[in-house]
Amino acid sequence: MNVPENLKYAESHEWANVEDGNARIGITDHAQSELSDVVYVELPKVGDKVEAKQAVAVVESVKAASDIYSPLSGTIIEVNSELDGNPALVNSDAFGAGWLFVVSVDNPGELDGLLSAEEYTRQIS
Fold this sequence. Notes:
alpha+beta; six-stranded antiparallel β-sheet; three-stranded antiparallel β-sheet; 4 helices; 9 strands; globular
């Protein structure tokens, strides 16, 4: 299972890549594998205020629909519109082209509550 060292992880299987006060969010390789073939992604709207651990998106696969939680509080500043026409990017490139949204981080201290790659690997093992 691919668990990049440079990311932070939520226990609910989202990853966060924080740069310059913004966090790009997606679901982990483990999560996309468990879901299997993603067929639809419902993203939040740009400008939405979100709280950490709040359900903000939905990923539907051939198996199930799953809520996606924001690992951090802030404002949605970008969504991955490529997923509208190609939701399978979540499966094929979970840590790259399959990202979901970007949130401006209101409380950087919340990062301390997220898991390191090593901690997340232990959780899914």
